[in-house]
Amino acid sequence: MYALTMSKLDEVKEILNTLRVAMSLSFGMLVIVVSGIINRFDQNRVDMVFWLGFLFAVFLLVVIFLLIIKISQKTKEIKEL
Q1: Is 35 helix (H, G, I), strand (E, B) or coil?
Q2: Count of CB atoms within 10 A of residue 19's CB?
Q3: SS3 46
Q4: Residue 27: which of 61, 50, 59 has the closest Cα?
Q5: pLDDT digit string, tens, across residues 2-35
Q6: What distance in Å separates the CA atoms of residue 80 and residue 27, rounded to the nearest whole number?
Q7: What is the per-residue pLDDT for 18?
Q8: Which residues contact 9 (CB under 8 A, 6 or more apart)?
Q9: How far is CA 48 from each of CA 25, 33, 37, 45, 54, rounded to the nearest angstrom?
C-alpha cells in the first residue's frame, strides 16, 4: 500500500514539474511574441503578421491560464496524497 502511494506521488510530482516547464516556455514565447508585436507597431507595420502575432499572444495567455489552473489542481492532489 505504501509503495503504491509513493509511486502515485512521484507520478503527480513529475506531471507537476512538466507543467511548470511548459508554463516557463510559454512565458518565454509570450515575451518574444509581444516584443515582436511592439517592434512592428513602433515601425508602423500593422499588417497581417502583426495581427497574427496578436492572436498568438492571446492564445498563449489562454494556454498559460489553463496551465496555472492545472498546476493548482496537481498541487492540491499532492496535498491529498
Answers
A1: helix
A2: 19
A3: coil
A4: 61
A5: 555 568 889 999 999 999 999 999 999 999 999 9
A6: 29
A7: 96
A8: 78, 81
A9: 25, 14, 11, 9, 10
Q: What is the pTM of this model?
A: 0.84
Q: How much is the pLDDT for 1? A: 47
One-letter amino acid identity for 46?
A: V
Which cell is 12 given?
503527480
Which amino acid would we find at residue 29? M
Nearest to 36 by CA among 23, 22, 51: 51
Q: What does the block give as the cell for 43?
A: 515601425
**What backbone torsions phi and psi does residue 7 show, to the nearest 5 degrees?**
-65, -35
Tens of pLDDT along 24-64? 999 999 999 999 999 999 999 999 999 999 999 999 999 99
1 CB-contact burial (10 Å; exposed 0-12 / middle 13-18 / buried 19+):
exposed
